[in-house]
Write a structure and sequence with these properties.
Layout (H helix, E strand, L loop, with lengths): L1 E3 H7 L20 H11 L4 H7 L4 H13 L1 E6 L10 H10 L3 E6 L18 E6 L9 H8 L6 E4 L20 E4 L7 H14 L5 E5 L3 H6 L12 E8 L16 E9 L6 H12 L5 E8 L9 E3 L7 E5 L7 E6 L2 E3 L3 H4 L5 E6 L31 E6 L8 H15 L16
Parallel strand pairs: 2-3, 3-4, 4-5, 5-6, 6-7, 7-8, 8-9, 9-10, 10-12, 11-13, 12-15, 15-16
Antiparallel strand pairs: 1-2, 13-14
InterPro entries: F-box-like_dom_sf, F-box_dom, LRR_dom_sf
Protein name: F-box domain-containing protein
Organism: Folsomia candida
Length: about 425
């Protein structure tokens, strides 16, 4: 079964398996048209259209095929369908076509012949998924990963249960830059220790880490966090965050360029949340270029939380989901002094601002209250001149009429506040009724 990376991204939001951007091999035809124009055009097409392009002629076949390979993930069940042996030639044919990106699906039947994968040593992207609570191929998928240690760039464990994190002791993955760990390990000390050793010893070139927050305290207790590789500059945390252990995030030794809190929620000590966030953001504010906050609490009065943010001198992309949580927000205008946002001080180079309200509040969809913390004072000379793109999404079930009037009014307000984002403020928000 062939599956495109576009299909994969639709399931996981902005997740895209690692793509070999350096692949410029297009077959025996070396004309400029094939090498430059055809692959470039195909990058903007869907897989179905690319398949049609391959039928035009030999030149289009070679030019389009290279792009199609890069957009394709081969799904390989590591167990026989309906307990039948999978044709090894079929699997080899799949791997021959798209030999760099695979999704290994682990099931509860007897595994297929592992010899099929003996010669597969050049994978660049591997996704591991489990479809059963009692997997029988737990020894096979680590071997497939280890066989491509020298070429692997992206490794994702994409969900499942009852798996042990494999040991990579004594092996180095020199090109692995992206590691995506969902919560499906047993969370025993051995699993956390293996994760720690993998990040600190086996993945010296790691740049982006997506991980469930529940692993962080254990990695802290075992002294792994301070040893994370210097190349790591992008961190994404998800699931429930325990505020009692949030200080462990301060142990990250190296500056971050990208920081995301996605689908995260807090329960205890919610009143301490703004200060803990400020300390963590303050540490990385000099280098942060992209920040995404999608957080929530179990408190109904979360609007009463008083947030304080540092200034972000190099921030270019800011996304705030559940924006009503940040209705009371002040920025550090000068050392120790907080006030209304001044873009020239707080976000001097910000280019993209995305704000999303994810729940309905009666009678507030008609104004910009959901992004009040990010609006400069009227007459303030701190106009957001650098902002070129503004996206405002309002998911509101209370507004049942006058949608177009409300939309036009909000667009006018945004244009007055962000004049240089005129090209993007057209149809950038939605009212979902």
């Amino acid at each position: 079964m062939e599956r495109t990376k576009r299909d994969e991204s639709q399931e996981r939001g902005d997740f895209l398996p690692c793509r070999d951007e350096d692949d410029t091999e297009h077959g025996p035809f070396s004309s400029g048209l094939v090498e430059d124009v055809i692959p470039h055009v195909c990058k903007f097409l869907g897989p179905k259209d690319i398949r049609h392009c391959r039928l035009v002629c030999k030149s289009w076949n070679y030019g389009a095929t290279s792009v199609l390979k890069n957009k394709t993930i081969i799904i390989i069940p590591l167990y026989p369908k309906k307990c039948r042996l999978i044709d090894s030639d079929e699997t080899k044919d799949k791997l021959t076509f798209a030999h760099t990106s695979v999704c290994l699906v682990i099931g509860g039947h007897q595994p297929i012949d592992p010899k099929i994968f003996d010669e597969i040593t050049n994978l660049k992207s591997i996704v591991v998924r489990s479809s059963t609570k009692k997997p029988l191929e737990k020894d096979l998928f680590p071997k497939i990963i280890l066989n491509s240690a020298s070429t692997l760039k992206h490794l994702k464990f994409g969900g499942g249960e009852s798996l042990e994190f494999p040991s990579f002791r004594g092996v180095v993955f020199p090109k692995l830059a992206n590691l995506d760990l969902h919560h499906f390990w047993d969370e025993g000390s051995q699993d956390i220790e293996r994760i720690g050793h993998a990040i600190t010893e086996a993945f010296p070139a790691l740049q982006h880490l997506r991980i469930a927050y529940r692993y962080m305290p254990g990695l802290s207790w075992m002294k792994f966090l301070p040893k994370f590789p210097t190349s790591l500059n992008s961190l994404e945390l998800h699931e429930l965050l325990n505020i009692n252990y949030m200080n462990c995030l301060l142990e990250f030794p190296h500056p971050l360029k990208t920081l995301k809190f996605t689908s995260t929620s807090f329960q205890d000590r919610v009143d301490d949340l703004p200060w803990l966030f400020y300390k963590f953001l303050k540490k990385h504010s000099p280098t942060l270029e992209k920040l995404c906050l999608q957080i929530s609490t179990n408190r109904m009065d979360n609007l009463k939380l008083n947030w304080i943010f540092p200034a972000f001198p190099v921030m270019q992309n800011l996304t705030i989901c559940n924006s009503d949580m940040f209705a009371s927000l002040k920025f550090e205008i000068s050392l120790g002094n907080f006030g209304q946002i001044n873009y020239k001080i707080c976000f001097p180079v910000l280019r993209v601002l995305r704000i999303c309200r994810t729940h309905s509040i009666p009678n507030v969809a008609h104004d910009l209250s959901c992004m009040a913390g990010f609006l400069p004072l009227q007459g303030d000379n701190g106009c957001p001149e650098s902002v070129k793109e503004v996206d405002l999404y309002i998911l509101d079930e209370t507004l049942t009429s006058d949608r177009n009037l409300v939309k036009a009014d909000l667009n006018d307000q945004l244009l007055k506040i962000f004049p240089n984002a005129k090209g993007s403020i057209k149809d950038v928000w939605e009212l979902v009724v």
